Amino acid sequence: MDLSDLLSPDAIIPSLKANSKRQALQELAEKAATLTGLDERQIFDTLLQRERLGSTGVGNGIAIPHGKLANLKRIQGLFARLPKPIDFEALDDQPIDIVFLLLAPESAGADHLKALARVARLLREPGLAGKLRASTDASALYAVLTASATSNAA
Amino acid sequence: MLEAMSLAILIGSLLVVGAVFTSLFSARFGAPILLVFLLVGLLAGEDGLGIEFSNFAGAYFIGSIALAIILFESGFETRWQTLKIALGPSLLLATLGVLVTAGLVGLGAHLLFDWSWLASLLLGTIVASTDAAAVFFLLRVGGISLRDRVRSTLEVESGSNDPMAIFLTIALVGIAGAGAARGEEQAILSLMRSLVTQIGFGGLLGLLGGVVIARIAKAVEFEPALQPIVVLAFALVLFAATNMVGGSGFLAVYCAGLVCGNTRIRHALAVRRFQRGMSWLAQIAMFLTLGLLAAPSDFPAVLLPAIALALVLMLLARPLAVWLCLLPFGFSRHETAFIAWVGLRGAVSILLAIVPLIGGVPEGRAIFNVAFVVVLVSLIVQGWTIGRVARFLGLVVPSRQGLVERIELELPGRGDHEVVAYRVHPDSAVGRGGRIPRWARPSLVLRDGRSLRFETAGRLQDGDQVYIVTATDHIRLLDHLFARPAETAGDAALFGDFGLSAQARMGELGDAYGFEVPEAVRGQTVADVIRETLDGDIEEGDRVACGPVDLIVRRVDEDRDVAEVGLALERSGPRPRLPLFQNRREIAAWLRTRRAARKARRDAAAAPPVPKRDDESTKVGDNAA
Questions:
Q1: Interval B456-495: pLDDT, tens
Q2: What is the distance in angstroms between the Cα of B442 and the nearest Cα belonging to chain A?
Q3: What's the CATH code, domain B403-483?
């Protein structure tokens, strides 16, 4: 198991500035649009629709927004750290500062759920959030995310 | 004379002290504490340290008073809500269940021993009741949080089935005593009549008496220390008076306890604490006395057949009775199996075993010894395995709230407000800097031996003692703030990867995760589907399979409705399935398929088979549990 198949080194935002949940999702959609070449608006709407079912803030300051897109080619991850934590309507009411966005093609089916479960499990690993919060540059963050994924597989 | 009295007091109190001290060890080994009391009595008795005690009438007298106190307390501790959930099933178990168990055990005894039918049935009724003390103790102190409906059913059943067993036993001894003097028909008729008066008077006088006791305890201001005494004395008055007019005194005190415990009386906390203490003392006294009474040197003669009978009771009679009684209520197989297994026998059975001895039934001594062995086997085998069986059957509810360190202090004269003191734990919501709501403003904070006003104390620190004046109903909410996080709280395996709004529509959920939802279900909310699948019995941690994912009940509200839902991306593995205890729905489904199969076979003989349509590939809302 390795997150590098979902996450490329350029899909890391070490410092995402946002004041609200909506703004954060907008920024993420914009970045995802440049990565995938899809319409920013379409991505944003998909994410927003998923949030309506219940916040993807999973607690401990972590959020994993996700959604399915019709003309996406492959499962695409995007990681961001927020220097200023924002309210994400998370279940434990804690503001979030770590975001992992996961987009999947409409046809991905079970692969979508598997990838999502992997991301969720990885971010739950004890100590990982601390490491992510301690790193400030993109390559260090990428190393933490992929290194821990390989150790997890062992 | 004086010396003899001192000696009696010395021995009696030493036994109590010994029993209480041994209970410290029993907690470590997980042995049922009552078993320990019984063993202390046996050890001190004629075959152990040599205390001679064979006064059966005296033992029966002590045991009856003790049982009345215990039953009053178990009623006192039972909440209306518990009763409401469990009334139907436990009433059936306490009546029909006792009859079926007694009948089957009687049959077994007739085959195993060379006894008359009457004596065999007598043994059946003696061991037919589930022991309230044993069940309450194991469920409350055992440290497992069980599914609410299962726990409630067991509690109410064990509290309310003693009167039935007592009645049947006394009636059978009466018939044995009267011999064949009267016609059989007449005997049965008078039996029925006395059953109706026993239960009717017992229940009615109990409820009425309970209302009267609660009224008095609410209206009259006694010296606070006397309040609990008055309540208990009234309960015993009710017990004796009901017995004298032909009702069941045991049923009456249980009902009275129910009413009193659910009424806000003066000094309720003090009364409750006193009741608990008295109930412990009653249990110790009862088990010690009964242990002293038995002569273990007589046991080997009946040991093997008695153990066989215990197995008949635990593996055949009780399970069958429970299954029959629970059929109308839609319990799952696992729940039925567990309720069947928690049929612990205890002091009531031994107490009832004295009745034939007093009544002069020829097989009396043998009945007493067999009953004693059956109780021992049940306490050891069932008592020791309850926790493991509950976990194996998946009936333990994962706890989302950890330990709370709370002390309740009573405010004089009022029933609806209390002072509660919490110790702040660094990992609790408050300890991590959470806000305390306005309605629960602390009056006082104790820190390092100094008392501070909450306003000047600043942020609460580890080890602070916080005193809050609050309405009694709010304590549960406060517990949330001061509780340590439960070990399982963040466990995604138990509560899912993501949270879902209970109002989320099934259709949108299916779209977001790529599984098909039937048109009829699309408009329903997640909570609707859970409610429908679980059929009213909703508990935190319950899972409902839904396409490729599991919906999980994260929290239920006060009305036992779905408040928060979790989403698990991976389905849980299948749980062990028992081949027994099919419930009503499963039996109906089995009959339907049988009928369909027979019809298909008949049709196949007449015409070539028609290809079956496959329309069950994406079934939503089928219960994984």
A1: 777 777 888 888 888 777 777 777 777 776 555 456 667 7
A2: 23
A3: 3.30.70.1450
A113, A116, A124: best to mutate for the B interface, most B CBs within 10 A: A113
Separation in Å, CA of B497 to nearest CA in chain A: 7
The per-residue DSSP string of B349-397 comes to HHHHHHHHHHHT-TTHHHHHHHHHHHHHHHHHHHHHHHHHHHHHTT-BP
- Taking CA atoms, B491 is separated from A60, A116, B432, B442, B551, in Å, by 13, 17, 20, 32, 15
Pairing of the two strands A96-105 and A62-63: parallel
CATH class held by domain B491-568: alpha beta
Distance from first CA to last CA of chain A, Å, rounded? 9
Contact B160, B91 (CB under 8 A): yes
Per-residue confidence at B16, pLDDT binned at 50, 70, 90? confident
Q: Which CATH number fits domain A3-153: 3.40.50.1760, 3.40.50.1970, 3.40.930.10, 3.40.50.300?
A: 3.40.930.10
Measured CA distances, A45 to B348, B417, B539 (Å): 67, 50, 35
Task: Please report the number of interchain residue pairs, chain A to chain B, with beta-carbon separation below 8 angstroms.
Answer: 60
CB–CB contact A117 B570 (8 Å): yes
Cβ-proximal residues to B275 (8 Å cutoff; 6+ apart), any chain:
B72, B73, B76, B77, B228, B231, B232
Q: What is the pLDDT of residues B491-539, one digit of tens each?
A: 666 778 888 888 888 888 888 888 888 888 888 888 888 888 877 678 7
Taking only the tens place, the pLDDT of each residue in B346-383 is 888 989 999 999 888 888 899 999 999 999 999 889 88
Indicate the pTM of the whole model: 0.74
